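Table S2 (continued). Query chain:
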Amino acid sequence: MISEFQELSDKIDRLAQLAQSLRGENYLLRQANALLSAENVDFKNRLLQAQQRVEAMLAQLEPADPSPEAGEAPTPDDAEAAQ
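Corresponding output:
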């Protein structure tokens, strides 16, 4: 009977140690998750800034009115450029 209590006590101790270990691991995973989330936000902001710069550069390269004027038939060069 005493050995059964000792065995149960040992199992409870192992369970408590495992629970403590999992709490520590959970804490570390939450910290890593927070860091990665912050890094993800930073990367998204950098990507948005790069996209805005590319769009601004494209806007500078585009002509003011890229469509041919009304009444003008497109030339063969225009048809090739559109492809």
